[in-house]
Amino acid sequence: MWAVRAAVRPGFWLFRVARDCGAPRAAPPLSPCPERALAAFRGGLGCPEGRGGGGRGPGADGRRSRTGGKEGEEEPEAAEEEEEEEEELLRRDPLLPAGTQRVCLVHPDVKCGPGKPPGTRAEWQVVEAQALVHTLDGWSVVDTVVVPTKTPDRKLVFGRGTLERLTEKIRGSPEITAVFLNVERMAAPTKKELEAAWGVQVFDRFTVVLHIFRCNARTKEARLQVALAELPLLRSHLKNVTHLGGRGRDSRHIMGSGESFMQVQERLLKDKEAKIRKALDRLRRKRLLLGQQRRRREFPVVSVVGYTNCGKTTLIKALTGDAAIQPRDQLFATLDVTAHAGWLPSRLTVIYMDTIGFLSQLPHSLVESFSATLEDVGHSDLIVHVRDVSHPETELQKASVLSALRTLQLPRPLLHCMVEVPNKVDLVPGYIPTEPGAVAVSALLGLGLEKLKARLEEAVLRATGRRVLTLRVGLAGPQLSWLHQEAAVQAVDVRPEAGVADVKVIISDSAYGRFRKLFPG
Ligand SMILES: Nc1nc2c(ncn2[C@@H]2O[C@H](COP(=O)(O)OP(=O)(O)OP(=O)(O)O)[C@@H](O)[C@H]2O)c(=O)[nH]1
Ligand SMILES: [Mg+2]
């Protein structure tokens, strides 16, 4: 377990979004059918592979399209072809060597100038880099070297003298099997020269982060997004290929095509990019359709966002009692959106979306390729911002997340009504939140959860135009069971002598309109 976690640089972020198909947990009495709340996700879009269909087909009540299939559903043959094409796009060479690696972490510490990361300190950047390495199976950091530098982006990153000292150190340490150079991207010639000098493989953040993403992306959409983010890496490798089977990069007439090797490779990459974008677009349309179905069902959706490792998954587990949720002490533990049903104090069912972002020198292409999934956050009714207040750079993390959220152009009320949840207060004795409306919790120990649920209920009711009403219904009629189906029944006060009951419900404006229409008077 890390003593501290990721350092942040404002302006860099990434959200993860995945849909889980897990069954709902035991509901409290009088709960308004949580099965229906999750039905929208089950068998539907973006279910992680192996857990319910890998993203094919709409929700249970999808409308029929003109072709006779359900809305958003393709013909079986076309669907099969698409599936094959998507799998083909996902077939790739490994990014990092398999098996145990003992890594020397080399951190260029930029003291000043444009390359200096704002706000954060070298020690936290090193801690984050170590955390990244430890996230990889079988990898460990055996040595860490912090090297002051002015311009980490020049060809060999370091000055001649520093490079010589590093070479001596790495060459003289046989236990070192790889070097993690903590720069965002390393040009291919730099990698080649450093590897030649040091005699071991050298990796940058982009490659390591991409590898972690590859391992953790479970839905087809997330996997394709990672594949899209990898394209710049493939392009930069391409630029440095000068020979293939003895042909120079500019040799003409490969296979009689009149194209050079470079041109053929570039065309293939372009085709690949177009196919990935098309497949992503297909999946996105399905996801949006599912979102519409979800909204038709009128279960409030609460998006839980925050810096990586702040405890989002742990909090959702605590709020829903979902035993299947497995929080992990890792960066990028989840890259997919998962949906989980929970209940607020009034027994109102809500869907919690485990959707979060990461930051800190993330390559732009990674950020960009994942931004589509953030649409889900924009369609939620409430955003909960979880914070790890035990982290030394918690304020910087908060600023980073807020700045990322602002760039999403979310509806103003959604941003304005965001609920802040300072988490891990068990590690900060005497912590008192400073932000108005914030509710401090320890998701791990279950502290502050009842207060948080009450706060969420109040915010959800306000955000979704629901109200608490007491309605008088006849005991002989269908009103009471209708209310159980369509609203959150809180209390039923039966008056047998009058043959009526006073029913306290939380009901949406539209459901109340339907109730009045169905049962006038
Ligand atoms: N002490 C303490 N640890 C916590 C608390 N909440 C979460 N953790 C720990 O923090 C680590 C990360 O928790 P997660 O819930 O996986 O965090 P996350 O934000 O979902 O992380 P990513 O999905 O990787 O972004 C785990 O080891 C949790 O046990 C808390 O309230 N107190
Ligand atoms: Mg998580």
UniProtKB/TrEMBL annotation:
Domain Hflx-type G residues, every copy: 300-464
Molecular-function annotations in GO: GTP binding; metal ion binding; ribosome binding
Gene Ontology CC terms: cytoplasm
InterPro entries: G_HFLX_dom, GTP-bd, GTP-bd_M, GTPase_HflX, GTPase_HflX_N, GTPase_HflX_N_sf, P-loop_NTPase
Keyword Nucleotide-binding: yes
Chain intervals with Acidic residues compositional bias: 72-88
Top-level division of the source organism's lineage: Eukaryota
Comp. bias regions, Basic and acidic residues: 61-71
UniProt region (Disordered), positions on chain: 46-93
Residue ranges of the TM segments: none
Signal peptide (residue range): none
Coiled coil: 262-289
Alphabetized UniProt keyword annotations: Coiled coil, GTP-binding, Magnesium, Metal-binding, Nucleotide-binding
Record carries keyword Kinase: no
Bias type Gly residues, positions: 46-60
Protein name as it appears in the record: Putative GTP-binding protein 6
